[in-house]
Amino acid sequence: MNENIAPSVMRRILNEVADLTRNAPEGVKIIPVEDDLSEVHAIIAGPEQTPFENGSFRVKLKFGAEFPQAPPKGYFLTKIFHPNVSNNGEICVNTLKKDWKEELGLRHVLVTIKCLLIHPNPESALNEEAGRLLLEDYEDYAARAKLMTSIHAKAEPSNSGGSTPPAPSAPAKTVAKRVQRKQILRKKSLKRL
């Protein structure tokens, strides 16, 4: 929950979410989580000319108390056959591990995850079967990934026909105000105890 995250870090997350809501990278749609600023969801469109093309993948970024010194944890909520995504959805990418830098933001993380769909890294596989198939028989890997995409990652309808997903229904500022009100009420109730 939010209570372990410093107010300055919450402001940073809110500002980045608001910026991404207005100006998201191509093929990425931000979805603020109403009651929890320590978590951000996004929909990433499967890149063209990949086994994930025409898919719509929901990802979750979870911020811990040590953010931004430590990276957020990334998860695919949409089931995917990919070497760098475990069966429980955990994402293995250097940006979210050893290459993390405090100044990297949500935009960089989301673009990196989207790039991982284009260029998987079988050498750091969390899904060993997908990593092995990618190295030994790309056609089998691609067929399996396409099948999983067609079953689990149905694309969301686009209202404009363009490549940029529509804006989320809950604006980041509204979410921030609700969360701040809840925190104030929580603090007041704790003071009474």
What do you see in this structure?
This protein is of the alpha+beta class. It has one domain (7-153): Ubiquitin Conjugating Enzyme (Roll), CATH 3.10.110. The chain is 38% helix and 12% strand. The protein contains five helices and four strands, in the order αββββαααα. The protein has helices at 7-22, 106-118, 128-136, 138-152, 172-192; strands at residues 28-32, 39-45, 56-62, 73-76. A four-stranded antiparallel β-sheet has the order 1-2-3-4. The longest helix is centred in the C-terminal third of the chain and has 21 residues, at 172-192. Residues 152-193 are annotated as: Disordered. Residues 157-174 have a biased composition (Low complexity). Its EC number is 2.3.2.23. Keywords: ATP-binding, Nucleotide-binding, Transferase, Ubl conjugation pathway. Pfam families: UQ_con.
Outline:
The protein is α+β, with helices and mostly antiparallel strands and 193 residues long.
CATH homologous group name: Ubiquitin Conjugating Enzyme
Oligomeric nature of the chains: single chain
Write the CATH architecture name: Roll
Q: How many β-strands, per DSSP?
A: 4
Query: Could you say how many structural domains there are in total?
Result: 1
**What structural category arises from helix and sheet content?**
alpha+beta
Helix content: 25-40%
Strand content: 5-15%
The parts where pLDDT drops under 50 for at least 5 residues are 158-173
Mean pLDDT score? 83
Outline, from the CA principal axes?
globular
Order of helices and strands: HEEEEHHHH
Q: Strand order across the biggest sheet?
A: 1-2-3-4
Radius of gyration: 18 Å
CATH level-3 fold name: Ubiquitin Conjugating Enzyme
Main sheet summary: 4 strands, antiparallel
CATH class call:
Alpha Beta
